[in-house]
Design brief:
This protein is of the alpha/beta class and 253 residues long. The chain contains seven helices and twelve strands. The chain has a seven-stranded parallel sheet with strand order 3-2-1-4-5-6-12, with helices on both faces. The chain has a five-stranded mixed sheet with strand order 8-9-7-10-11, covered by helices on one side.
Length: 253
């Protein structure tokens, strides 16, 4: 059994994870952290992480970057593994996460979906074969009309996977409206679509002479991110200090 503290328990993802864990015999939420207690949980909810006095095996954070410092300090003191799922960290916070990994186990990912992280592995395999043959690479991501940032963090993570496998040779291009020239072979195009209630679609397109290979992932609900976060918490249970990612979770399966 993996006992979990859930930060952001009253938010959309917090409620999603709460429902998922109810049907999971290997995980249990023992405490929640949120400024607002919606009264729908069967575990205690604290208004701050510092006030939490419940023992746990791992922490999942789907709250806000604003409380990152408090979470990292708490986890370092308790030697508590942390799964960081919030988005929008600045450079200073990313550095703080790396420093915290020297004191306790920390897992952070741009996307918690097991499917997306498997896609990243497949993309790197494709790059190793196709990039050297001159195939152009384009990434297209689609999200709902309420999403604020573009391109998505997942699209950028996919681009980084491509570039890593290609030896860092690609230049990211986000907008071609001002480019009156042919596509350079070292361009990696990243395009964003916003509309409706699309949860999240990502396509990595390899366009070569006379053929196109597309690797795709579609999320139909936010539950896929919750499932990945819970899988990550189970993986981190008992782990020593270090920086982990979803690739480690997938390898352990």
């Amino acid at each position: 059994m993996t006992n979990i503290i859930l930060c952001g328990c009253s938010g959309v993802m917090g409620r999603t994870i709460t429902e998922l864990v109810k049907n999971d015999d290997e995980a249990k939420i023992v405490a929640g952290i949120d400024l607002a207690d919606d009264g729908r949980t069967d575990y205690p909810v604290f208004s701050s992480i510092a006030a939490c006095d419940v023992d746990a095996d791992a922490l999942i954070d789907f709250s806000s970057p604003k409380i990152l410092d408090d979470i990292l300090a708490y986890c370092a003191e308790k030697k508590l593994p942390a799964v960081l799922c919030a988005t929008g960290y600045d450079e200073q916070q990313l550095e703080a996460i790396e420093a915290a990994a020297e004191r306790s186990a920390v897992l952070r990912s741009a996307n918690m979906s097991l499917g997306i992280n498997t896609l990243m592995n497949l993309v790197q395999q494709a790059v190793s074969v196709l990039a050297q043959e001159g195939y152009d690479v384009e990434i297209v991501e689609k999200h709902h009309n309420q999403k604020l940032d573009a391109p998505s963090g997942t699209a950028l993570a996919l681009a980084d996977s491509v570039n890593e496998a290609a030896g860092g040779c690609f230049e990211y291009v986000y907008d071609r409206s001002q480019r009156k020239q042919k596509r350079d072979r070292k361009e990696l195009g990243i395009s964003a679509v916003r509309g409706g209630t699309i949860v999240g679609d990502h396509d990595v397109i390899f366009a070569g002479p006379d053929e196109v290979i597309t690797l795709s992932h579609s999320a139909y609900s936010k539950a896929v991110f919750g499932k990945g976060a819970v899988a990550a918490a189970k993986f981190l249970k008992g782990k020593g200090a270090g920086r982990y990612d979803m690739a480690d979770v997938i390898k352990a399966k």
